[in-house]
Design a protein that fits this description.
The chain has 593 residues and is α+β, with helices and mostly antiparallel strands. Helices cover 25% and strands 26% of the residues. The relative contact order is 0.05.
Amino acid sequence: MNAGRTLFSQLVDFLPRDDFYQCVQRYHGHYKIKTFSCFDQYLCMAFAQLTGRESLRDIEVCLKTFGQKLYHAGFRSKQISRNTLANANHIRPWQIYADFAQTLIAKATDLYVDTDLGFDLDNTIYALDSTTIDLCLSIFPWANFRKTKAAVKMHTLLNLKGSIPEFIYISEGSVHDVNILDDLPILSGVDEALKQLEQTLVDVCEAFDPGAYQVACQATSELERPHLQQVTEHVWLSTFSNAKTGFILSESGKAMALDYGYNWDGIRMQTYPYPERRRALLHGLDELQKRFGIDRIDMVLVSHFHDDHVSGIPVLQRLFGTECWATENFADLLEHPEAHCFPCNWPRPIEVHRRIAMDETVQWEEYNFHFASMTGHTRFASLLGFEADGKRFAHTGDQVFFRQEDEPDFSNSRQQHNHVYRNGALLDGLAQSSQWLLDWKPEIVLTGHASATRTDEHYFRVVEEGAQEYERLHKLVMPLGEDETHFNVDSWGGWIWPYRVHLSEPQQTTVTVTVRNPLPRQAKLNVKIVGPADWQGSEAVIDALPRAEASCQLSITPTGYCRSQPFVVELSVDGQPFGQVAEALMIVGPNQL
């Protein structure tokens, strides 16, 4: 037993002193130094790390407990104050300790190179881990983490043979590990390994199904696919989003996204029906950073509420405080997804910072945006028009597509219908959109799931013919004549807002009921809200114009606790009953009931 020396001193003996002093000489670390050497400074910080000290005062108090035995712990200084240590940390070159760390890592790697991890693998295995370091928000306001906390995060790539750190990256506390992957150093042999992986995938697919060769080639070609596709100098498209995300760049270095949904490579259709398994992954940001130095999305302008177009917005808002602008006809659907029941709905609330009227022109940076109703794909959508780089643009969401995906020949093409009935598609929806396009005359059209389309004289004719075909076909298969009784193409008789009602105790509650007049003339609509036999519901009579929608406030009183109990709206028009035309769900009691 070495009774005269501390355990810390014995550990220090393993440090290669000659290598350390070479690092000191390289950066002139001992220039004008009298007593407190660079090695003593290193020992102080090493001691603090090993013993879990949390401040300079903590280090000072702990070292003072050694008293006259400080020398036996390996230090040459007789006493160490926090002021001395703080001054040394401030003025001495940090490169000394960075270079020495690399020396220690190299030596440790050689020592652990033959370590058996229990895997039948010859190659080195790495793990990426991170540590959040809390900071004072008033002193470090740049270290974004939470509203009331500041922090930085230390992302560390560990060699599992010895748990040796081989790469360290310091970021703001809010940065996720997945965003550091592109900054990891490329290790030797990666290109050869990827080529071998590509060939192996091809061999596996060929052995299983000769026709699967194209699938393997498509999967491996993703490695070289550019993340952004240029439309004009300031307009780009993301190539990794399921719903095509457009980016508009301003002269001041900001970026606007037109929709922002799934990174399609991050999800697969078999998980799509389960909201808790969906992944709204980031896309486009890495390429914006590399090309233009843009590291955030400042604003998202939304074309419609479907999940593949909006699911990434909460991630942007959480990371960058991104603003979301949407037209007033579907802003409530984004902020209150629990209050309605429409297909393709993103189930998490999205904050809308600005609600835009259809007849309103709004400005973002140097760009002006115009809007129009778009009800052929879904009632809850809007056409977008703007000018950039001397070109007139239109964004048609998911409404205007063509049978020929790549550079369609509009002189011999046909519009592809893409309506969703339960989303409120209307008979004249395509006609309204085609008229707006004829009036706006865009030179470039951005769509929800295709590359940018450059229009010509045939484009607008094809769009107009598509609208006419849409109406003609639906009138053939449905009673949609001018003199007939109907609830339009979507067949909605009405709806209740909110769709899900939650009460802690049985009590009267009020909902908004909207119903349609299915007649080609003005009529009286008798609206009644109905629940289980012992529930009390109110009713009202509304005057409505031909084919018009009318709303009123109705109340219903549950008599006991329940979970997802349906209640409905019954509609009669000029005495003609149309039955139950709308449904909503009631929960009375705690959520877990």
